[in-house]
């Protein structure tokens, strides 16, 4: 923990950390040392990690990357923070992210963008850009992150690290600042699938304080130990060829016109390696892939407009210095506290929920969501065991390159959104680099599984790594 704190203090290149408090970290490290000495240390005793700044933390500031919460200190810890500490992990601090987790490049943070450790001109991806960059730069062994529409998988892909978004409902959302509640799910980013097994095992578990938390994962109780056991079972099921008998579905819609040639080539090489490990490749179809973009940007903004109404400048958060009356106070405080992208989404979400438009937009998006979830159920199990393809249509782009074009930014989410709309687990595994000018920009392979199949995804990633 001491050497990690020194490395963080010396790092001026990445802007990955928003808040560090050495005294708090060292107190956690002392507690971990004491547990080790007593012989009752948890599985992560002394492992230095850091939290995306959307997980609330007692004592540490929590900003969600927003001016609205620039000085906010929570009176309680998020369940995820509490669980990781109980497992012995030591927190190094809070990590930069897009404001309220809205974005794909980390450029929407009120506290400045994060830089990609592989190439200082490149974005790290988002919204969990600080989490992916901190791990890639060697500043933390692992990091917490959240994924509403790709924010664990896409920054992991763009920074060359490994990340998993588990099945919706397996990781508690209590104390995780809400964006789109029916889509938001926490998960870890780390160097390898092995590390993710330990982190996810400690993070996940039923929580009665989250109304969408699941107690039961199709026969296995949702509690620490489930992920590790499922991973071990999937590993021991592997025969002489590690992936013998595994049917890998490759959706033809993931290889269309928008996919960059260098990403396509890295993915193709990875798919051949899965075959060399014994897997069988099958072509499948996820016909509503393109519709996932409008469906997601209606549902996520609708939920965001509702969730963010709590920032009224009365209970907590930024309050304008001058105002005429209480309505003016709320209006001015929100105009000052929220950045442009957050305001755009609140307006969009309010519009799609308003009288006269609700049926045309919001209800229609919910119908598409159901069909997208059915598409996964049609192929998983009958045609294939897992699905594989790219995470992002391109490698990391340059800072500033898409910041004036929100629609271009939204279109880059095409391969990640359906997973959140369906609630199934997905992960990103490093599988090479781009070409030419992109030779130092990583590519990630996405693997997607059926509900609660995290153990198998992690075992496949581990065999590949
Ligand atoms: N890029 C997507 C968005 O901006 C996903 C963000 C996320 O998963 N938090 O909404």
From TrEMBL:
Residues 1-458 form the Amidase domain. One of its GO terms (molecular function) is transferase activity. It catalyses: L-glutamyl-tRNA(Gln) + L-glutamine + ATP + H2O = L-glutaminyl-tRNA(Gln) + L-glutamate + ADP + phosphate + H(+). One of its GO terms (cellular component) is glutamyl-tRNA(Gln) amidotransferase complex. InterPro entries: Amidase (IPR000120), Amidase_CS (IPR020556), Amidase_dom (IPR023631), AS_sf (IPR036928), GatA (IPR004412). Keywords: ATP-binding, Ligase, Nucleotide-binding, Protein biosynthesis, Transferase. GO terms for biological process: translation. It comes from the Bacteria. The active site is at 52 (charge relay system), 127 (charge relay system), 151 (acyl-ester intermediate). Its EC number is 6.3.5.7. Heterotrimer of A, B and C subunits. Allows the formation of correctly charged Gln-tRNA(Gln) through the transamidation of misacylated Glu-tRNA(Gln) in organisms which lack glutaminyl-tRNA synthetase. The reaction takes place in the presence of glutamine and ATP through an activated gamma-phospho-Glu-tRNA(Gln). This is Glutamyl-tRNA(Gln) amidotransferase subunit A. It comes from Verticiella sediminum. The gene is gatA.
């Amino acid at each position: 923990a001491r050497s990690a704190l020194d490395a963080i203090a010396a790092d001026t290149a990445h802007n990955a950390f928003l808040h560090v408090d050495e005294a708090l970290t060292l107190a956690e490290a002392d507690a971990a040392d004491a547990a080790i000495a007593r012989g009752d240390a948890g599985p992560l005793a002394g492992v230095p990690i850091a939290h995306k700044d959307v997980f609330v933390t007692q004592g540490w500031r929590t900003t969600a990357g927003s001016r609205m919460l620039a000085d906010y200190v929570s009176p309680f810890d998020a369940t995820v923070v509490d669980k990781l500490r109980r497992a012995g992990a030591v927190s190094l601090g809070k990590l930069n992210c897009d404001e309220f987790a809205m974005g794909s490049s980390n450029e929407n943070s009120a506290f400045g963008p994060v830089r990609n450790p592989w190439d200082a001109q490149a974005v790290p991806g988002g919204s969990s850009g600080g989490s992916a960059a901190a791990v890639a730069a060697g500043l933390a062994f692992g990091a917490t992150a959240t994924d509403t529409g790709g924010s664990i998988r896409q920054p992991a892909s763009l920074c060359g690290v490994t990340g998993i978004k588990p099945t919706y409902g397996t990781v508690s959302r209590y104390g995780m600042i809400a964006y789109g509640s029916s889509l938001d799910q926490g998960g870890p980013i780390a160097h390898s699938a092995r590390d993710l097994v330990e982190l996810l095992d400690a993070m996940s578990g039923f929580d009665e304080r989250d109304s969408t938390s699941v107690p039961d994962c199709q026969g296995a109780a949702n509690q620490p130990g489930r992920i590790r056991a499922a991973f071990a079972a999937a590993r021991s099921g592997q025969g002489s060829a590690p992936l013998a008998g595994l049917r890998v579905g490759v959706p033809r819609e993931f290889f269309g016109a928008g996919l960059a040639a260098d990403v396509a080539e890295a993915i193709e090489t990875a798919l051949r390696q899965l075959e060399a490990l014994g897997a069988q490749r099958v072509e499948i179809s996820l016909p509503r892939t393109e519709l996932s973009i409008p469906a997601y940007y209606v549902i996520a903004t609708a939920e965001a407009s509702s969730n963010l109404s709590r920032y009224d400048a009365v209970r907590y958060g930024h309050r304008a210095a001058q105002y005429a009356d209480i309505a003016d106070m709320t209006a001015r405080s929100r105009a000052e506290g929220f950045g442009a992208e957050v305001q755009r989404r609140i307006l969009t979400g309010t519009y799609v929920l308003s009288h006269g438009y609700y049926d045309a937009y919001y209800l229609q998006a919910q119908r598409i969501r159901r069909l997208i979830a059915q598409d996964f159920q049609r192929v998983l199990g009958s045609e294939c065991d897992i699905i594989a393809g790219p995470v992002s249509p391109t490698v990391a782009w340059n800072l500033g390159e898409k910041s004036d074009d929100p629609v271009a930014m939204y279109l880059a989410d095409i391969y990640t959104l359906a997973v959140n709309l369906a609630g199934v687990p997905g992960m990103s595994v490093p599988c090479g680099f781009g070409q030419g000018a992109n030779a130092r920009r990583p590519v990630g392979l996405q693997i997607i599984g059926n509900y609660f199949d995290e153990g198998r995804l992690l075992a496949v990633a581990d065999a590949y790594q």
